Amino acid sequence: MIEKSSLTEQISAPQLLSLLEQAILPLYQMSVVKGESSPKLVLAYSGGVDSEVLACGLSALAHKHPHIACLLIHVHHGLSANADIWVQHCITRANHYQLPVQIERVKVEKGPRQSLEAQARDARYQAFDRYLNPGDILLTAHHQDDQLETLLLALKRGQGPKGLAAMGAIQAYKQAWLVRPLLDISRDQIEQFAAQKQLSHIEDESNQDDSFDRNFLRLDIIPRLKQRWPSIATTAGRSAALCAEQQQVIDDEVSHRLPEWLIVPGDTNALMTESTGFKLTGFGQLSAAWQALLFRGYLIYCGVNLPSQAQLQQILSQLLAAKDDANISIQWGDYQVKRFAGIAYVVSHKELDAIDASAVQQQFEQLLKGELQQTVCRVGHKQCQIGLQIATDNTPLLALPNNTVVSIRFGAAGSIKCQPQFATSQRQKARELKKLWQECNIPPWRRPQIPLVFYGDTLVAAVGLWVDKRYLAQTGDQGICIPLLNTR
């Protein structure tokens, strides 16, 4: 075991190999025990000095442990005129290390208000993802000075303990692992090792462009900090580790408390919603800190990009302060939070896309003409299979139109009346559509996505929800089977 204090001096090849073994072998063995077939090591290989040193160490590990498969992946971003030269360098060096290499070409497009750095990073990781199987280990060459940069950027953005925890040495990454074996090694140590071993590496000219935040810190700020406080990268790493510990405690407690606030798809109160819901009853009695932690935990659970702190406070304020019947819609990025029946839902803009009524109308007409045996309608986020059948006592079918004009509509006036077959004996009369939506617990943003079947100007069915009892096919007659997705 290498003590961290010994890493303040120049590192040797045996020390580098030992670092890799300590970080990698336990995870590798864990994957083997779990039954993942042939887990492999995947190195994010830029050809810069950091990844060159890590590739050198990985070569030694592969030689000592030949049963472990290794792969270098170099991503060609196309952002530099030297990109093709870097590809050749990486192929040459990989051959020198006797390690397989894969070149991935990606296209980086900077969108409005997007960082080129962030776009390039996302493109890289998407490329790595294509090669990662469950249990595989992705290696990156982040080091101690990178950790200091990450911590300073988190301070600049005003992030909390999670952001200040910066990068973890070992962390779960999707179904694989992400390992940063050099996180306790300084940039100086890496450069000394490369010089000692005469490792050839590339120099990315963009690293001298201080218009990028990281380069500004690396070139101008961190050297001055180190001149005043030589051990600042080490102490900052210690602070990041302490923040990570505290964040883990918070995450564990949020994970313990969160389930009691969730409504998952399929629950009675979550009908016709694609997203998991968040209960608001009693939520206002919690402290402001726990409100923020739990709702942020809910958004993470749903897998959406988190809003800023200011946006989160606005969301919580509107959810808790607005009247029960208020139509709340708070947007950020590609998402928005809505509220219905005391439950908050996060939905993506894509989920709210309008459905092409003409396409559904055409399929329905083809079905009635016998040109289709059955057709599939989208009802919210679900699929409903429609076809012609013979009615039985246990299967409510919509009667055939008998030369009446049939139309499919998405959205109708709330005053239109219908008498669903699920209505109780106390409700012999037709009810307004707006009341039926409420009775079926359909959120307002889902209602325009439910196909409504009209015979002439009469609403006779809501696909997936009900058939008007006055338009049910008689037993033994042919009718239109509209499966009811709303279990009552």
From TrEMBL:
Enzyme Commission code(s) on record: 6.3.4.19
All residue ranges annotated as the Lysidine-tRNA(Ile) synthetase C-terminal domain in the record: 406-484
Chain positions recorded as ATP binding sites: 46-51
Biological process terms in GO annotation: tRNA modification
Cellular component GO terms, alphabetical: cytoplasm
Keywords: ATP-binding, Cytoplasm, Ligase, Nucleotide-binding, tRNA processing
Family: Belongs to the tRNA(Ile)-lysidine synthase family.
Protein name stated in the entry: tRNA(Ile)-lysidine synthase
Organism: Shewanella frigidimarina (strain NCIMB 400)
